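Sequence in, structure out. Go.
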Amino acid sequence: EEQACPFRRFRQFFYIAAAGSASIGTFIAGTRVIAGMQQVAGVQPLAETVPNTLINAGVVAVSGALWYFDEKRGQEALTTLKDKGKGRLDMQSLEVMDSNGVAADMNTYRDDKRIVILAGTAAEVTRAINLASRQANDLAKNDVCVIPYFTDLEDDSSGWNAMKESSVTGKWDTWLLRPQSKDKWKEWLLNDKATVAGKNAKANKKAGVTGTKAVPDSADSFDRLLRVFVIRKDGKVGARTVGPPAWPKLCKQIEMLPLQDQYGTP
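Output:
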């Protein structure tokens, strides 16, 4: 929250202090206005007390409005951070299986592996995997694992079995991880899709962009796009893209990273 809205509490303290001081001033000046209207002897003339009352009341109103808008923006930032944190925790609890048949949750690979999730139709995901296989050595050298999720297949066993049968080791490639508990994967992917769509709609509305799709996306189904998630070593989603990744470019970018940087890549 502090990163999204720096010094918010500090600013709000001054808003409250200004509103409190101006409220006292408004009360005192208001009593003098009443006394002046009743023609009490010895009070300031209305020409002086009325402007003072209006100025103090204006400070109260402005301070209150500034506090309200600052608080609203802070709550929005806090909600966004909570959504991100929840999505990250949900993702880390998803299970995958490695080429040795060992199942573990995503959190197991944190700090050790960079994860690329491919979510799309069997045709699109298979094409992306074939392109990735050309960079297999670079992917392994840069600690990159790929998780293919086929959105149009209820059972993906045939594809994984075919990869094992075509391999001399009887296993699929070590840089591939197979999703387990596909219902949980589907739920996470659809929730992420809905969250991103909501953020985009909100941003478009704020920017004044209008227009609707002829066929709106369903919240409980996938489209035919290949969605790519790049998960950093610190467990955060580093990037979301659509379409097959540029694997050579991705590997080159990773190699150019320092040994330790702000993206959690030790």
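Check: The beta strands are 95-97, 103-105, 114-120, 144-150, 178-179, 227-231, 237-242. Residues 212-216, 262-266 have pLDDT under 50 and may be disordered.
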